[in-house]
Amino acid sequence: MKIATWNVNGIRAREAQFAEWMAAAQPDIVCLQELKASPAQIPQSICDLEGYACYWHGGGGYSGVGLHVRRAAFQQEPVFTHPHFDHENRMVQTQLDDTIYLSVYVPNGGKDFEQKMAFLHEMDAYVQSVHAQGLKLVLCGDLNIARTDMDVHPKERKPVIGQSPKERALLEQILSRGLVDVGRMLYPDDDGYFTWWAPWRNMRQRNIGWRLDYVLVSEELAKRAVSCPSYREVGTSDHAPVVATFA
User: Does the model's pTM come out above 0.85?
Assistant: First the structure.
């Protein structure tokens, strides 16, 4: 099974890139963030991709998330819903068998840090609730937090939002609820494993970036993970798609 997450930074600008990447990668679950479009503004061609059920959750030129499910990978037709703390079109989920798949776009926090922290506290309670029901969870998306200093290029390490001790501590608390950071589990010593690059001074080409995009899964699922690369060469978004493969 292949599970992908990608902050596309405007799905209308990335329409052709997204369709081309989907055809080549053939993921079973695709979580998208920062659509910057309402459902009515999204080209039908990238919703009606052959073999996929999709859901777009956006309100215009800000935020927005999407979820694609490859029908051949699951016996049931997906039903898409939203956790109760979904504000600003930041979350969409579906339960397939005993697993919930969630696409999430955490607030950046630059304009309202307390809102970001409140959102993360709600996410912490959500993870606990899912596991308390005996369900497994696949939580994918742009969390807008670089987990440790290793997740930021040395030239970009600074006391700013996205790298603050408070955010990092809360992310560790969320992980402690039975989730595993698949990328770091598989690549524990890779200090060049980034998913976002500032769009100037050839930062992406020079790989001077941050790791903000994650595939977090319940411990039982993590045991089956075999790869989770960040595809820096794909697309023109400031984020790269991250694809986790499970045996």
Answer: yes
